[in-house]
Design brief:
- The chain has three helices and seven strands, in the order ββαβββαββα.
- A seven-stranded mixed sheet has the order 1-2-3-4-5-6-7, with no helix packed on it.
- The longest helix has 14 residues.
């Protein structure tokens, strides 16, 4: 069952560009939260809730609390919404209706923070896709069915050892030890696939 959040009414049109000079990473997110969006293409027809009209020089994007089931077409769409889409660092997709981690997310190699909590992702194997994001440091997945599997946290951290925060909780030394031990004991092939459950941490 999808967990798409509420919808909101877009604000009146605003003109101009943010004046963030050489520090676009400090600009506030381009905000399409609570906009009743069910497809990525709709981003080009909906006005952001805050800030000036796109394209914006920010490196952050809010798409949370909508009804997205897929993310196809995101890169070309962001070409029209962001000044430098290849520099996207922060993406909030929480509280949508996603059942998988869309492979399109792996094209954003500068992504440092990804929020996917409150969706309907059931398979732990989906986390494998994020292993190609070398700069990813903060990830949220709680509120998805996968969270109910035993050993969930250790599994995610074994695949993404560079994370410093998982589900808004800092990664501890004990977390890393549990992940390393579980990885050695059980091996990748037994984790997250159909018919398998991640083992509980000791």
């Amino acid at each position: 069952m999808g967990k798409g959040g509420g919808c909101g009414r877009a604000p009146p049109p605003r003109q101009g560009m943010l004046s963030w000079g050489e520090r676009p990473e400090l600009a506030p997110p381009l905000d399409f939260s609570f906009c009743c969006i069910s497809s990525i293409e709709e981003l080009l027809r909906v006005q952001p809730r805050t800030g000036p009209l796109p394209p914006q020089p920010t490196h952050a994007l809010r798409l949370n609390n909508n009804s997205l089931e897929a993310l196809g077409g995101l890169p070309p769409t962001l070409e029209q919404l962001l000044v430098t889409p290849v520099q996207l660092r922060w993406l909030d997709l929480s509280f949508n209706r996603l059942t998988t981690i869309d492979p399109v997310l792996t094209s954003f190699h500068t992504l440092r923070s990804l929020q996917l909590h409150g969706n309907s992702i059931s398979s732990l194997a989906e986390v494998d896709k994020l292993g190609v994001l070398p700069q990813l440091r903060r990830l949220t997945l709680h509120g998805n069915p996968m969270e109910e599997q035993k050993g969930y946290r250790s599994y995610v951290l074994s695949l993404l050892p560079h994370l410093t925060s998982l589900d808004f909780s800092g990664v501890t030394k004990q977390d890393r030890e549990d992940a390393a031990n579980a990885r050695l004991q059980h091996g990748k092939k037994k984790w997250g696939g159909p018919g398998h459950r991640a083992p509980a941490s000791e």
